[in-house]
Each structure stands twice: as structure tokens, then as C-alpha cells.
UniProtKB/TrEMBL annotation, chain A:
Lineage: Bacteria, Pseudomonadati, Bacteroidota, Chitinophagia, Chitinophagales
Pfam families per the UniProt record, alphabetical: HAMP, HATPase_c, HisKA
Ranges annotated as spanning the membrane: 20-40, 166-184
Name by which UniProt lists this protein: histidine kinase
Domain Histidine kinase: 247-464
Automatic annotation (TrEMBL), chain B:
Name of the featured protein: Universal stress protein family protein
Highest taxon listed in the record's lineage: Bacteria
Amino acid sequence: MPQQFYTQMKMKIQIKTTLILLTAFLSIILLFSGFVYLSVSNYSYEDFYKLLEIRAVTTARVELDRESGSQEMIALRNEFFEKLPQEKDRYYRITPGKSFTEEAKALDIPITFFNEIVKEGKSEYNKNSVFYKGIRYKSKQGEYVVIASAQNYFELHHSAYLRRTLVFAIIAAFVFSALIALYFSRYVFRPLRNITDRVKEISSENLHLRLANNSSNDEMSDLIGTFNNMLDRIETSFETQNNFISNASHELRTPLTAIIGEADVTLSKIRSTDEYIETIKVILDEAETLDRKTKALLFLAQTGFNGKTQKFDKLRIDQLLWDVKETIEKINTESRIHIDMSLLPENPVKLKVKGNEQLLHLALSNIISNACKYSNNNVVNVSIGASDQNVFIIVKDHGIGIPGNELKYIYDPFFRASNTLKYEGYGIGLPLTRNIIRIHSGEILVSSIVGQGTTVQINLPIGKFE
Amino acid sequence: MEKTVLIPTDFSIASLNIVKNYLSMQSSNTRINVILLHGLHQNDSITSLLFYSKRRLLEDLCSKEFREGCTVLKNKYASQLRTMKTDIFSGLTQAAFDQYAEANAITEICVPISYKPNFKNKNSFNLLPYFKVSGLPIETAGSETDIPMPEKGKVAELFFNRVSVS
């Protein structure tokens, strides 16, 4: 189901992208054609009114003034002035105190048209694609209102043609942009689809598979890289889990087997009291080992979860190190720990971290006692330094080291390196230490050369105390 | 007393060890300015000149460990060390280097006994020939041999390097 859901989501995004692109295209086209339509028709109206005005003036000159040579004018007018459709030229004399109500009624145009001509000198009016242009004309006989009217040819034919053209253009552009948007969204989401298809192939059975990263350095290759990284981590944790279960059952079974075997042998016949005491001692010993292991496991589990909040105090790392040294020397009198203060910062504030003293004490004593143990009580160097962000604790031994190919397993519970067989231990210390360092948002780095020694570097962030 | 010392660097922790050795030899009342200098031939194409930024260049070259190591040293020698900075020298001639030394008021140069820089960038070059001709006093520090150690390249490398100082 989740896969289906994912496909649905992706389809949705794809459609959404298409729609957004389409809307953008369409709005631009509509804006554009609307602008073209309005400005062209506006221009043609104005043009037509100008034409009518010329007609009105000519009519007035010819009809009202009857100047010398008006005969030629009439001839010219008839010859060159193409009659406009339904063209009519009228003139009315202006007599003061008389309004044009009757004329207005007769022509079926509002009286305001006439009033405006008288007042302003000219006026425009249109109705049912018949356009009226009126002017006030001062002739020798007196003042006249001259009105030229005609049907707008543009309104009749051109504008319809323009509308048709624009509608066709919009439809064509819509289809075209829809195709582009569809192609574009497909093109953009194709790599995503490919990734989905390939990720689907990977399951817990074939975790070693990785996504091929053949695209150049873009967001998709980043995504693929992130996916591959995640797969790496998942694979490791799968392995860790498998290792942990087999190791844990093995570790827990060893003492149990010893207990069962011991009891079995003893019960096979009647024994003397001394023998019983011996047997029970062995059983107690093994049971104690078991107890220690389960306790360590429990502790590991507790520190591993973040649900529980530990109490964090201000503490100085150098002080803590001296305490740890003392503790270890008490337990193992042969240990030789050398604390090196040569890079100790001059400002003691830089050594203060926020942490739980008990936990950090445990973590550091784990590391340092390991260093003592695996170097056969050779000198262990412990050094402190601080940068502006971190306190560094470095533990260096000259012991047996850790084989390079086993370094990545050292944090697995119960894992023990192949060269540690003659040393006691059951592989809880380091994972526990790492958990503790992680709780303190620090970092632990282990580097080692077999036969030369191991260096453990612990970075703890400096506490911010105001 | 105040000194400005020039130390060649390849941005490795090993080169910081030279700084550490040098600083440990100085008397406590000397105030020291350290310039960690890296020789780098610059690309002279128009685009790289147009977008040239020394800060970004240095950011690319310095690793996180190197920067942390620098601050560890700064904190350790907080009272002695006045300034410590990394710089890039990209001059071609001896005169350019002499100019650089004069402009930065270099009083001393400190080089490792066995200087085998390990450059990450193919345009980096060895500054030692310039040092030798410049006539500035040259001190040496560090160890003869290169002991393999597990902590190579980590900040930890800075911590254990008890080597004789000549």
C-alpha cells in the first residue's frame, strides 16, 4: 500500500506542476490577447471619430458656408470621399434659449449629446455600432451643430475577425502549452520515477544493491547519494543486529552450559560433601558471570535509549581524568597511566563540559583500562587539549592493536577482535562507552595499527555556561 | 619582545606539530605571531581571477581537523601566541617572497628538519627554496624520522609527538 500511496503522491505532484505551468502560460496569453484586443478597438474607435469629424467639417463648409469654389469641393467630396455605411450628415442651427429635444428624439440619441456640443464644441456618441460625432460650427449665417453619423465598419467586420483570430490563437497556444507543460513535468519527474523503481527492487534480502548514480552533479545525484548512504547504514545495522543476537546468545549460553554440565555430572551419582561444595562454588561462579553480563547488557540498553534523562552537571575534564586514573590504579596496581598536560589550555573554562560524572567516569575508565589491558600494562598516554568547541581526550597505548577490517565492528555488543582471545572480557565496554559519549553529544574515534597500538580520541563539546 | 614567524604548511596535523615544537622552544615572555604559509600557484584564467576569494580558497584547503588543531594550540599558548593565521603565497619570484616577508614583518622562519610536504592540491609548491635565499634566520624543529602511527590525520596526532628540538 505505501508504494501505491507514493505513486499517487508523485502523480499528484506531476499533475500539479503541469497545472501550475499551464495556468502561468494561460494567464500570460489571456493578458496579452486582452491587451491587444482592447488597444486595437480603442484605436479604431478614435480613428473612426476623427474620420467622422472630418466629414462633419467638410459638410459644414460645403453646405453652410457655400464659399467660392464650393462647387469644386462638392465634386471632390463626391469623387474621393467614399460613402461610409449609413453615413448621414446633419446640421441644426443654434438658437439661444431653444433646446434640441425634438431633434434628439428624432435621432434617438440623448439630449446631453447636443448640450455637450453646444457647451464644449464637440461630442461623441455611439449606439448599436452607429457612431455619432458632433461639432459646433461657426458659419456666416450663425452657429450650427453639425452631426456626422455612420456605421462603424471596424465594429462590424474587423473586430469580429480580431476576436476570432484571438480565440483561435488562445486555443492553439493552450494546446501547445499543455503539451509543453506535460512534457516538462514528465521530464522533471523522470529521474524520480527511476529512483522509485530501483528502490522498489531493494528489500531486506538484497540490501547490498545500490542505486546507480550516473547523472551529473545535480540534486538527483545528491538524492541518490543520500539513499545509498542510508542503505549503507541500514545494511550495517542489519549485520550488527544479526551479530548481536548470535553473540549475545553465545555469551549467555556459555555460563549456562557450564552450570548445567556441572550439575548434571554431580547428580549422576552420590557425592561427598566436599565435592558438592566444589560443584556449588563453580555454579555460583558461573551464575555470577551471567549476572555481570546481564547487568552490563541492561546498562547498555539503558544508555542506548534517549528516553531517560540523565542529570547533567558542570564538570572539569582534567579532574575527571585524575579520578579515573586513581580508580584504575586501585583496581589494577600494575597499570601505568601517564597523564600528559602539555597541551592543556591556559584558560580552565575551556575544560568544562556539561555531563554526567558517573557516566563519563565509566566511559573513560573503560577506555583507559582497555588500553592498559591490551598493552600488557605498558605505559598508556592520556592527553587533554581543547579547541574553541571541543575538549579532546586522547588515550594512546602501545598494545596489540585492532585489525583494520574489524575496526567497524568494535562498537557491536559482544564483538571481540580476533587477536584478543587471551584477554578476558566480553565486549560490552566499547559500545557502552560510545553510547555514553553520544549522550553527551560527543564523538569517539578509534584508530589502530596491529602490533603498534591503538589511539582513541574522544571529542566532547565544551559546555556553555553563562 | 615580539616575533613573527613563518612556518610552511601543507594543512596536515603534522605541520601543526612543527608549530607546537617551535612554540615550546620559545621563552614565555616572547609574544609570537605565527603565519602558516602555503605555496599555491594560482590559476590565471579570467573566470578564476574574477571569482577569486582567498577566504574561500583557505576554507577549501583547511580540513576541520586542521582548524581544530589550530585552536588547540591557540588555547594552549593563549598568552604567548598573539596571532596565528594561515595564508597563501602565490608569487613566482624571489622578490615577491621578499616583499611578502617584509610586508608581514617576518623575523624568523621555522622549517621541519626533514621537510616532506604532502600536498593535496596539485598547484601547491614547496616554499623551501624561497626561504633559503631570503636571508631570514631559519630555525629547524621536528623529528628526523616519520614514525607510522594510528592517529595519522586526526587531531590526536598533535598530542603525542615528543620529539627532540634542535
